[in-house]
Amino acid sequence: MPKLKVDPKEEEIRQLKATIAKQTNTITKLERKVEKQKTTTALIRCPEGQGGRSADRGGYNTQEAMGLKGLDEDYNRRCRMVKRYIHEYLSVFKPISQQDKGRVALMIIKIQRDIPYFQQFEEGWPIHDITRMYLSNEQTRRRTDIKAEKLACGEESDAEEQPQRKGKKKAQVSFAVPETDMEETDADTDGGRKRKMPLKKVTHTILSDDDDDDDLDLLLKPTKVPITPKTKAKPAQSPKKDGECGEYMISVFAHRSLTLWAKKPSKSVNTTYTSDAEGSNDNAGLEDKENHSPAKSAKLSSKKSNTATATADDTIVPPALTPPPSHRKTQTANPLLTWADLPRNCPAVLCTHPLPATPVPAILSLFQRQKNLVEANGPKATGVSFIDLEICQAISIARRRHFVMQTGEARGWPATIDPFNIRTRIFSEPIHSEILSLILKPATLTACPIWTDFLLAINHDLFDFNSSKTKYEYPQAIKHKTCGYYGPLGAFIISSSLMRFIAVNEAKHNLEQRFFETLMTTVGQDPHFSGSMYNDYDDSNHMAMKDFVSFILVPFVAICLIAQDFPGLMGGIQGAIFERNNSNEYGDLVHPEDDADEQVHQLHHENMKAIKALSTDSDRYDHLPPKKKQPLPPPSSKDGAIPSYPPPPLKHDPVSSLQDATAPPRHRKKGEPLGLTIRVPPYRPVEEEEITIDDFALPNLKTKKTPAPVLKKEKKEKAVKKEVTQAAPGRRATRSNPQNEDV
Fold this sequence. Notes:
Blueprint: H1 8-41, E1 50-51, E2 59-60, H2 62-65, H3 72-89, H4 101-114, H5 125-161, E3 171-178, E4 199-206, H6 213-219, E5 227-229, E6 245-251, E7 257-263, E8 269-273, H7 282-291, E9 309-310, H8 361-377, H9 384-411, H10 419-426, H11 431-440, H12 442-447, H13 449-457, H14 462-467, H15 475-480, H16 487-509, H17 511-525, H18 545-565, H19 573-582, H20 584-590, H21 598-614, H22 619-622, H23 708-727
Parallel strand pairs: 1-2
Antiparallel strand pairs: 3-4, 5-8, 6-7, 8-9
């Protein structure tokens, strides 16, 4: 079929139409982006004036300014959402002017992030208006409730205790009190005017100035607890001047104080509380009032919380409870820290971490210090913000501790350690054979990952490591000698048991010499030790057994124990090493070294006694690791000789059967204390002999033999020198003054 010829002009027109359509689509997309940017950047600004006020007072209606006029349900829903954030970030006991500006700004940012509707308003001004009105309404309701409660308490006291007395008429004043404290005023729905609430009438009697003073005492009397005066004679009271007034306080509640103005009372008399069984009742108190003319009231000071002062005919509430701190500076403010002073979240700016349910003492002490600083120098004092950062750091540490504890519970890491179980597992298979193989076989030591990590930590400077007096010069090596969730306490138990293990197997396998040969072979086979300096590796500079136990055997045994605790770990010994590294923080927190109990001390004491019974080497005791707490210290080396026989099986000592029973029985003298000393034979001074001419006789020229007296004398001198050398090797024996020789 022949192809149709296409007109070049039509093809050009088609291409131009396609280009126009493509450009039109691009223009449409750009226009949409520009409109979106305009909509995003054009934020709704805050109207002039104050929200919640009418236009006549220079304000505006917040609901109408938000564009929600007639949409009461949407407006109330968003107000409820803002109130939840107010309770989380701010204190409802303070107006917005007394709130922390940083926390208010943080709350607005959080609300705009969680509720996208408020992102269209510049600086979140509706949130600020809703917060201000809600806190203001809370303050109004709080003051109204307190006032109504005080008036109700006064009315009940007046109805119960005031007798029928003839007097002048009293004015009746009624106060409007809301029926419930759950209602709140809405300053925006009716153009800034408050919504009317159903009210009830509460009457309160106000006394005139001409009434008797006893009526005021009866009206303000808080309780029925009578007070009797002390047996001491009352001091003479000065007459009261007319018109003299003063301020005094009467305790109405256990946590509030009401300041009233009345005539100045006379001197108060210290009184004591008496019960009804002691013969005091209400009628007796009233009769005593009528017969005597005591002072009208007493001044109760918050400084004297342990003593009660009142007049002979007045009653007060005993200050049994410590009043909570007031958010305003009043005379009853509590200088101590209470739960009301603690925030829900961290006080640091831009930190939303919640405060722990049970704060540690470090956090409470920081809050107490901050409170004292604010009360002394104000909320903007120097150092308040720095204390906020310290509190934030302490909260982070507490959260980390909580996370570590939860991780340990989830992974099944033990919260307690059985020291005798650990020792039994060390002396049992297969850990027993693994330890001996690590000490006696160079191939096993070379393939051990603990040994490889140790050499990398010290940069293969084995000579320098052995010659250094302190091992803290190698922090990486110390970092690798951890025991995972067994912690420092488990490391001490393992180290003590390993030293007993070495003492038990020393005679069987000659561990000291075999260990030196193993190190020699390992050094010779390792290419890192091919230098000339390692050719002189001998007994004088090899690695000490106590260092090998501390840096190699202790973490190796801990890994073996972890592998036994979790047989399902993947990766074999590498999986156990990974589990140890992850649980180091848990072990340091749950099993610190200073947390040893009686069982740990008993086990350590048994191990030391067994070591001394099995070995006569004085350096064996030095191999034991140091301890912080030792309520059961080992026998002192100055008390006497070591026991000459293996001790009987000890309680909770399953390893005593592994002791070397082939040691010759040696008995300790009666009354001889246990201890560690070196047995030194007594020094024998040379017997004094008379020197004669025969001692200097010349040898016979024919036989060439020395006379007998000279030979006898030389033999005696050689015998004495030999005994002195064997008794105190490395020491100089003084024949002239043998008593000064240190044994």
